[in-house]
Write a structure and sequence with these properties.
single chain, about 260 residues, alpha/beta, Rossmann fold, seven-stranded mixed sheet, 7 strands, about 20% strand, globular
């Protein structure tokens, strides 16, 4: 299949905003008010809040929210006193951040682009990068880790959430239509390569983003190869009793990495 995956997924996430996907719904004003009082938490994965010690004091710090649009995390960081840049591939996800910023009187810099290309930012521009579960929509990871290392200041943190590769062994169509987990796919997995023409057409018709599994070597080993030290790790579930994979094992990982 020949197509521009980055552009397709950008437009698919625009459509997700229009359909009110849960990861596109902006936070309410009471969440922002609490963050201004220093009472806040955010998630890299679906359920578990990120440990506060992974952040330290973010007041006055420069934070890059990477592929993290949707009016959820960036406004919380801004309300808590950070200088926030929201960088996302979806114009409408960025618009959600803008809506909250204008509604709550917050300052958030909005930048649209591909996470593998942060060339508009100078070396050592940020103190912290917050990258929640989103690289599942990105076909190649190493350029992302390399760029994150470049734009982080020494001693800065990269906080990442990602989907475990085992999730992609199972046929998503069987799970959605028949409620069963059927082992089907070899890893690493790519929608663009593993699905039939009819299945791909169904995704395109419903504006569903293309997904890609990534090995732990690509996820964790890739961060280490870029120069990071991994200093934190936890697992998480979907948190949905209807999700069949939750009955087997955690589906997500979060890592904290430091630029020495």
């Amino acid at each position: 299949m020949t197509m521009d995956v980055t552009e397709y997924n950008s437009l698919a996430w625009d459509k997700a905003v229009e359909s009110s996907n849960p990861w596109t719904r902006p936070v309410h004003g009471d969440t922002i008010a609490a963050a201004r009082r220093g009472e806040w938490d955010v998630i890299l994965t679906p359920v578990k809040p990120v440990p506060k010690e992974w952040f330290g004091d973010i007041r006055g710090k420069d934070i890059l929210c990477l592929a993290s649009g949707g009016g959820q995390q960036a406004p919380v960081f801004a309300a808590a006193g950070a200088n926030v840049t929201s960088f996302d591939n979806s114009a409408k996800q960025l618009e959600q951040d803008r809506i909250v910023a204008e509604r709550e009187g917050l300052s958030i810099r909005l930048e649209k682009g591909d996470s593998a290309d942060l060339s508009r930012f100078d070396d050592e521009s940020f103190d912290l990068i917050f990258h929640p579960c989103s690289n599942v929509f990105m076909p190649v990871l190493q350029p992302i880790w390399d760029e994150c290392f470049r734009v982080l200041r020494r001693g800065g943190s990269l906080l990442v959430g990602f989907t475990k590769p085992e999730v992609f062994i199972f046929d998503r169509f069987e799970e959605e239509k028949n409620g069963v987990l059927v082992p089907m796919h070899k890893l690493p997995y790519s929608d663009a390569e593993a699905l039939t023409e009819d299945q791909l057409e169904e995704l395109f018709r419903n504006n569903i983003p293309l997904e890609f599994s990534h090995t732990l070597e690509e996820q964790i080993g890739g961060q280490i190869a870029a120069g990071f030290y991994i200093t934190g790790f936890y697992e998480d579930y979907w948190g949905d009793p209807k999700n069949l994979f939750d009955n087997l094992m955690p589906a997500f990982v979060a890592t904290r990495a430091i630029k020495p």
